[in-house]
């Protein structure tokens, strides 16, 4: 799957278009976890999205 294909799948699923690389990164991750893309396609997409500015979220440690 190429980035353009991912964007098209995003529009079909969500009903709107986005250029937000982080939103597309989350969408790609869900596609991978649902088995819609294989690991090699996922890795290529992640690399391309990160090259275009996507960042992985940093998780805050919650204190109880």
Explain this structure.
This protein has 64 residues and is mainly α. The chain has one domain. Helix content is 59%, strand content 0%. The protein has helices at 3-14, 21-33, 39-51. The longest helix is centred in the middle third of the chain and has 13 residues, at 21-33. The radius of gyration is 13 Å and the shape is globular. The chain starts with a helix and ends in a 13-residue tail after the last helix.
Short summary:
The protein has 3 helices and no strands.
| Global morphology | globular
| Residues in helices, as a percent range | 55-70%
Task: Give the overall average pLDDT.
Answer: 90
Q: Using DSSP, what is the number of strands?
A: 0
Distance between the termini: 42 Å
Number of helices: 3
Tally of structural domains: 1
- Stretches where pLDDT falls below 50 for ≥5 residues? none
Give helix and strand order, one letter per element, not per position.
Answer: HHH
Rg, Cα atoms, Å: 13 Å
| Helix/strand class | mainly alpha
Strand content: under 5%
Give the biggest beta sheet: none
